[in-house]
Design goal:
It is a single chain. Helix content is 45%, strand content 10%. It contains 33 helices and 19 strands. The strands form 5 sheets. It has a 6-stranded mixed β-sheet with strand order 13-12-16-17-18-19, with no helix packed on it. Strands 4-3-9-10-11 form a 5-stranded mixed β-sheet, with helices on both faces. A 4-stranded mixed β-sheet has the order 6-5-7-8.
């Protein structure tokens, strides 16, 4: 191996180290909610946030405004805030108090009052992170943002489907294509100067060697290489995230044009080295103007407010208008001493304490009585299922459970009449079983009609669907395309309605009956038994089966929405959950499977029948699927369940509309949610998983009858049936981790929308089916649109870290954590807060980062008297 090849190998290690800062960005049509600091999760939360501040200019913590709203709304108590100040700033406030005219004022009260009435501390300016930023800081130029704009433009061009010369079949192709074309491009030469052509021709053909060549031109020493590469990636974290997905997550079937991380840094560094060389001549400065979202964000005190002004405001709020100079000086020191990070972490602690206290008070009540259910309905753990579960149980003798929405059946699903399949499973699982959908015997004519209707609808909507993923804002299409779309646009505007995929009873899943030993679902018998046993044991449904058991998947019907997959089932890879529910039901109805399960201690009575259903979270409708296959003995039960699901959906729609902007109480709730679902001009058809805050592992007795406000992931668990902790380990290492990804993305999209959010969806330009840009260029915007986390007046999502509550013996929980490094990172690193109790008659305890369990005291006193 030559010296250069050895150096290139070391470069690849350095690039992987640098890229830990970057989270992967999935294609937007398979949107995956992911922790934006996923690569830093092995470090404690506060350290990871500090890294995000250093490299992205991100605050990483909530500002003061959410705290004020929370106190006004009674979500946080004054005691929560002062306790957070004391815990987070012990060196500043411990033992510090003053007597003012007979009043004893302690430091924690002064700091807490400043958090409510003062102005936040400035976020320190981000130091230069890469060669171009260092040059800009020294010369007052804008080389770095100019390079951002150009590299972002080239990334969009190189990932265009069908782009000649850039197929997605391996690393290095994007760099090779860029190198071939850029030397002939006038715009590039205007910025980088006439030497660009020669510089590109002299650059090595291999992207890794091109990176080494450019780093040498920029004067970057090998010991500084990781930081330089990290700084380069931090300039375009969206495109870097896409490249990381291409490198680490894309499968062979993903034929979209790709860019590898090495391609990206090779293009950027080669370009940057030549632009800087041109800028040093002094002839390039005029054209180097910043681009949108290009510079690190810096926030600070607004309106020229001085420390004395802040101290005066605090003392006035405490009714101490004339305290004297000594007290003024003391208050000034207190309000200015905490850094921006310390203020933010204190606000976060107060918000979390308030939410935890409210939730635990709800859970500390005797379980609601329940009779024998006529049906057990298993919903996805998605927080949007919580309200539907509660209303269904109010409608009749039903018991509901929670389980990950792919129901332990990772599949590739091929709809009837289609020649292509798609994966329907969590992104961490690669399905190897394809399930084709076919018509039931005797339903050939009805199935053909369905296929024909689907093809006609696809043809009619192809223009609108393609435009919703084209590089132009959908809200611009409404104006620019009016003459073209004409009557269809008029109908969509005046009479919006949901147009979701329907599942008539004439179609069933039949799988691969031609393969020996394989049943109707495409899985071999041993696999089918494993699927059924895993699902039933993990959710705690191992006995007491009702006559009807329903697996209810979910999806969301929206129109002209590039982020539509963000509203579908995360457990199904951003797809709808109905196919998985249908396969799981078929497996549990298989007599051979039931015989095997009976030998393993799970006896499903002959009188119990499993059916599938799907909950549309945008319209609050639940469709029972494949009703034509239900035995006559269970037909009346299914009919009654369907009617009760309609009533539950109506009640849930009324609940949701109270939070959706623009809802009118005078109109039918059902009609309103359907209209919003089908309205292509509606930026908030539903709230998705906004306001998610907790993950609860326990029996339904813990939460039955409680209104949890759609904020809790509910996973069923029977502690008495899991003595070895296997089911608990599965829950905590899989669905709980996914819930943390979701929670972290909503958190960071809320506290740092400019850095981690996708921006205003009315300005989105979808690009190549990959993601969205804001405006005409720049970085790919990852994360959630602003309309997903705020209502136009402020954030709707309350930014708190996930609270996990478990009802199980603490030694069992400790054993699971000890065996799984990911759980130690999440719990010990304070990414997730963990609260547990051994049994219903024992006290809740919180687990500290060092592994100790501490009883939670009754916070009722602290939670009363919230500030108005």
């Amino acid at each position: 191996m030559s010296g250069l090849s050895e150096e290139a190998a070391r470069l690849r290690v350095d690039l992987a180290d640098a890229a830990r800062l970057i989270a992967p960005v999935w294609p937007i049509d398979r949107f995956v909610a992911v922790n934006p600091l996923l690569g830093l999760v092995e470090r404690p939360f506060d350290e990871a946030v500090a890294e995000a501040r250093r490299w992205f200019g991100a605050a990483g913590y909530p500002g003061d405004a959410p705290l004020g709203r929370a106190l006004r709304d009674g979500q946080v108590a004054v005691g929560d805030l002062t306790a957070a100040v004391t815990a987070r700033l012990p060196g500043l406030v411990e033992g510090s108090r003053r007597d003012v005219r007979g009043w004893r004022v302690d430091a924690a009260t002064v700091v807490a009052t400043d958090l409510l009435h003062g102005v936040g501390a400035a976020v320190p300016r981000v130091d230069p992170r890469c060669a171009a930023e260092r040059f800009d800081a020294a010369h007052g130029t804008a080389v770095a943002p100019a390079v951002d704009g150009e590299v972002g433009r080239w990334c969009a061009l190189l990932t265009r489907p069908g782009h000649d010369g850039s197929p997605g079949d391996g690393p290095g192709r994007a760099y090779a294509r860029w190198r071939q074309v850029v030397r002939h491009e006038r715009r590039a030469r205007r910025l980088a100067g006439p030497g660009l052509t020669l510089a590109v021709e002299e650059a090595p053909e291999a992207p890794d060697e091109a990176v080494l060549h450019a780093l040498e031109r920029l004067g970057v020493h090998p010991t500084e290489r990781v930081d330089e590469l990290r700084g380069q990636l931090a300039r375009l974290p969206g495109w870097a995230g896409w490249a990381k997905w291409c490198d680490d997550w894309a499968g062979p079937e993903d034929v979209v044009p790709r860019i590898s991380l090495m391609d990206l840094v090779a293009i950027r560094l080669t370009y940057e080295a030549e632009v800087l060389a041109h800028a040093r001549t002094g002839r390039a400065g005029a054209g180097l103007a910043p681009t949108v979202h290009s510079m690190p964000r810096v926030s600070g005190a607004a309106g020229g407010v001085t420390p004395r002004d802040r101290a005066r405001a605090v003392l006035a709020a405490l009714a101490l208008d004339e305290p004297g100079e000594e007290i003024f000086g003391w208050a000034e020191r207190l309000v200015t001493s905490p850094t921006s990070a310390e203020r933010g972490s204190t606000v976060l602690a107060a918000l979390e304490a308030g939410h935890q206290a409210r939730l635990l008070r709800l859970l500390d009540r005797p379980p609601a009585p329940v009779g024998s259910p006529v049906a057990q309905v298993v919903f996805c753990i998605d927080v949007r299922s919580e309200g539907m579960r509660r209303h269904l149980e109010e409608a009749g003798p039903y018991d509901t459970l929670g389980f990950a929405g792919f129901f332990a059946t990772p599949i590739r699903f091929r709809p009837v009449g289609s020649v292509e399949s798609y994966p329907s499973a969590p992104v961490l699982i690669e399905p190897d079983v394809e399930i084709p959908e076919r018509g039931a015997p005797g339903s050939e004519a009805a199935t053909a009609q369905r296929v024909e209707r689907r093809q006609a609808r696809t043809t009619a909507e192809r223009t609108v669907a393609s435009l919703s993923h084209a590089p132009v804002s959908m809200f611009g299409i409404a104006e620019a395309g009016g003459w073209v779309l004409g009557p269809r646009a008029l109908v969509r505007t005046l009479r919006p309605r949901a147009r979701g995929e329907r599942h008539p009873s004439t179609v069933v899943v039949v799988g691969r009956p031609d393969v020996p030993g394989v049943g109707l679902t495409g899985f071999e018998l041993e696999e089918r038994v494993l699927v059924a046993e895993t699902a039933l044991r993990t959710m705690g449904l191992t006995g007491g089966f009702a006559p009807l058991v329903v697996f209810c998947g979910h999806g969301s019907t929206t129109t002209a929405n590039p982020h539509a997959a963000a509203l579908d089932c995360g457990a199904c890879g951003g797809n709808r959950g109905a196919p998985n529910a249908r396969v799981a039901a078929a497996i549990c109805n298989d007599p051979l499977v039931r015989d095997e399960l009976r030998a393993r201690g799970i006896d499903i009575p002959d009188g119990s029948w499993f059916v599938a259903a799907e909950h549309d979270t945008a319209t609050d409708s639940v469709t029972v699927l494949d009703r034509g296959t239900v035995p006559a003995t269970h037909g009346a039960l299914v009919d009654q369940l369907a009617a009760d699901l309609v009533r539950a959906g109506s009640a849930n729609a009324r609940d949701r509309l109270r939070r959706l902007p623009g809802a009118r109480r005078s109109r039918s709730a059902e009609r309103q949610v359907r209209a919003r679902s089908g309205d292509w001009a509606e930026p908030r058809p539903e709230w998705g998983l906004a306001r998610n805050a907790a993950f609860l592992v326990g029996s339904r007795d813990l939460t039955r009858g409680l209104d949890l406000d759609g904020r809790v992931f509910l996973h069923s668990y029977d502690t008495d049936a899991d003595l070895d902790g296997t089911a608990l380990e599965t829950i905590l290492t899989a669905p709980m981790v996914v819930a943390q990804w979701i929670n972290a993305q909503y958190y960071f999209s809320t506290v740092d929308p400019d850095v981690f959010g996708a921006g205003d969806k009315t300005l989105h330009n979808p690009i190549n089916g990959i993601g969205v840009l804001v405006g005409v260029g720049g970085d790919l915007r990852a994360g959630l649109p602003s309309q997903s986390v705020e209502d136009g007046e402020g954030p709707v999502h309350e930014p708190v870290r996930l609270l996990t509550l478990v009802e199980a013996p603490r030694d069992r929980i400790d054993g699971v954590i000890a065996r799984n490094p990911i759980l130690r990172h999440l719990f010990d690193g304070a990414w997730v807060r963990l609260v547990a109790r051994d049994a219903p008659d024992t006290a809740w305890c919180t687990r500290l980062p060092d592994g100790a369990w501490v009883p939670i005291l009754n916070r009722q006193a602290n939670s009363e008297g919230a500030a108005s």
